[in-house]
Design a protein that fits this description.
This protein has one domain (about 1-200). Helix content is about 65%, strand content about 0%. It is built from 8 helices and no strands. Helix 2 packs parallel to helix 7 (about 140-165) and helix 3 packs across helix 6. It starts with a helix and ends with a helix.
């Protein structure tokens, strides 16, 4: 109910500014939300976190460039504010100071093995992703699209992990042939929380 209330209070009006830029960004975000839960590559040592983080950063970078290009062309911007803005600002400020006073600026900038998602580049990417969602999905019809996209992706994850638990291994790579392997993260707790969210939705 709180989720629905949040959407209703912030977004529930007809979005009449669905130009080509908005439509492209919107479908990019829907596609990203669908793909990222089960996206991984077997070509490196960290098939889950690194690749998910990299994919999100690429999508967000392209979407942000399109959004800024739209602002330049139309010479106007409507920025949706939320009650979370000040907390996000403080959070970013904390990370910025942490990066500035870090003993290893490279690690602070791009992260390190197993901690790529905690780098300042990743954090900025998450914040940009949040504000893209807030400013692009302004009507309930489109909000439902991204929620359904997440739910469908999550359902695939749940079904996949049921096969894993029954030792029916679908994926061909050796490291995936383990009942403890899941597509979300190398953590059973993370998977449990994710599954609970999917069931609630």
């Amino acid at each position: 109910m709180k989720l629905l209330s949040f959407f209703n209070n912030n977004f529930f009006y007809l979005d009449k500014e669905s130009d080509i830029f908005i439509k492209i960004i919107r479908w990019m975000m829907i596609l990203l939300v669908f793909i990222i839960p089960f996206f991984f590559l077997s070509v490196n040592s960290y098939p889950l976190e690194f690749n998910k983080t990299f994919l999100l950063q690429i999508f967000v970078l392209i979407a942000t460039c399109l959004f800024l290009w739209r602002v330049i062309i139309f010479k106007k911007i409507k920025f949706q504010k939320t009650y979370l803005d000040k907390y996000i600002f403080v959070f970013l400020l904390f990370y910025l100071f942490s990066f500035i006073f870090s003993k290893n600026h490279y690690v602070g900038l791009v992260g390190m093995s197993g901690l790529y998602s905690a780098s300042i580049i990743s954090i900025i990417g998450y914040v940009l992703f949040f504000y893209l969602i807030i400013n692009i999905f302004r009507d309930w019809h489109n909000i439902k699209k991204i929620i359904y996209s997440f739910w469908l992706s999550g359902s695939i994850i749940v079904i996949f992990n049921l096969f894993q638990l029954n030792e029916t291994f679908i994926l061909p790579w050796e490291f995936t042939k383990n009942i403890n392997f899941n597509l979300i993260a190398n953590s059973s707790l993370t998977l449990a929380i994710f599954t609970l969210i999917i069931l609630i939705i």
